[in-house]
Amino acid sequence: MLIKIYDKNPNENSVRTVVESLNNDGIIVYPTDSVYALGCSIRSLKAIDQLKKISGKQKELTIVCPDLSTIADYAKVDNQTFKLLKRNLPGPFTLILNASSRVPNKFFDKRKTVGVRLQSNAVAQAIICELGVPMVSISIHTEEKETEYMTDPELIHERYGKIVDIVVDGGIGEIIPTTVVDCTTPDPEIIRQGQGEFIL
């Protein structure tokens, strides 16, 4: 199913349709403030397993939170880190933090860390706020010569429509991923420069 949601005034009924799917173990493709991404509810262990299969990634999962206080529920955030989050979020950044006990074990390999995001994309934020819990997420990937399959919602639907429940059309997406920052040590380190200028 392809659902159009406009970023300037996200339609509440469309947002609720998407969230209803997420609450029923659904997987969606949705726009972010960087590239389009696959997502599911953190409450659905079944959907998290399926998300890993679809993406082919056993690591690199992130959680997208509705607000800063929710990040603090799922990750260990001291005063210094909280100030760092407040300076930079929302925005196109993935912050690697030490995970709290609320993060499902399905996330972990050897390190008990989790990537966290707070969206500045209005469509994504509307979905996550309506969901009420974080969304587990991973960016969609494709061959370099096929970037339109990362950015054009209709082509994304052509590729993913049969293996996910909903593709959310939030307009043409970006091709540059987030900037990734490791915040697990006293001196945060940018480990991938992508969109945005992160303020350390």
**Mean pLDDT over the residues:** 91
Count of helical stretches: 7
Low-confidence stretches: none
Rg over CA atoms: 16 Å
**Basic shape:** globular
Strand content: 15-25%
Distance between the termini: 41 Å
What does it look like?
The chain has a ten-stranded mixed sheet, with helices on both faces. The longest helix has 12 residues, at 12-23. The radius of gyration is 16 Å and the shape is globular. The chain has seven helices and ten strands. With 200 residues, it is α/β, with parallel strands linked by helices. The chain has helices at residues 12-23, 45-55, 68-74, 79-88, 122-131, 148-151, 153-160, and strands spanning 2-4, 28-30, 37-41, 62-65, 93-98, 113-118, 135-139, 166-169, 179-182, 189-192.
Task: Write a concise keyword list for the protein shown above.
200 residues, ten-stranded mixed beta sheet, 10 strands, 7 helices, single chain, globular, 31% helix, alpha/beta
